[in-house]
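Why predict the complex rather than its parts? Because the way molecules touch one another can change local conformation, and only a joint prediction can capture that. The input here totals 321 residues.
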Amino acid sequence: MKELNFSVDIKLHPTPPFNFRGTVHKPSHFPESDLKYEENTYWQTLHFKGEKYGIQMQETGTANEPEVNLVIFSDEKLTDNLIKEISTEIKYRFDMNSDLAGFYESCGSDELLSPVLKKWKGMRVSSHVSLYEYLVVSTVLQNATVKRSVQMLENLFQKFGESLRFNKQKLSSFWPAKSIDSSSEEELRDLKLGYRAKTLKRQAAVFIDGKIKEKKLREKVTEKLKDKLLSIYGIGPASVQNILFEVFKEYGFVNHIPPWEQKIYSRLLFNEEEKPPEVILQEVDNRWGEWKSLAMHYLFEDLFWRKKQEDIPWLEELIRL
DNA sequence: CATCAGGGCCCTG
DNA sequence: CAGGGCCCTGAT
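Output of the joint prediction:
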């Protein structure tokens, strides 16, 4: 347990329009103890350049004149330079610099999307974690039900992730890749990771070796980036698609519809139980072209926001706990 | 009780 | 390119 007693406030100014809660909270994601969202306040831990921080964000502006109050908590006073770096990183992760005018322009009149756009205009895709951390999450998702994924990640947090206390919150933090690398596969298997233990070790290794540098990857064009990501052990077509979208903010890359999403998009797009993946792929491409990932994200998250208010029996059935 | 698939991916033939 | 195997769990 570590107390973070220093804090600094920074004002962030996302490009308008901006939707705060749609960006910081993704109801379709499974719960994890490194973040919390409640009453329009968002908290997370941040493992950045070898140090651990607490983050709090609140909206202080409006959709058209966006402003976000970012508070960085730390265990010692931060330098101006570091404050700047962290702010820049947060802005990237929550995609606060993007211009979505083209999206609204070309997809705004789509009859399926337009009501959702009205509700969520300004929502961004986001990944609150680094690439390495995202790989961990992708790995625990594979071939497992939600409940088991949650269990695996929490086991990892308990063993490797220090708890941070800040702003009256106590949240888990991610660990350096090194701590996974230096523990045995056996120790990892004890966390009920199964064959994923090997995957996590091999993934940790490429980050330690410096074979993968997230910053560098952000400069690559989609195809090169995709190939590089696919070369990572344990990353296949399903994971790579999520990474390209959530981590690297590629709005138009969809070439694979995994079973669970297949069922959900069959309902959303065709109001049927199960359409073939190819049909879904064709449909999203026809409708939204280069913006299809983002469009699908709007529909998907809107569905899970609705689930908080209304009963959606077919969806409840699909969420296997 | 045993069997099996799950919000994949790797590896082999 | 198809299909078996992989860890563990809970559903059947």
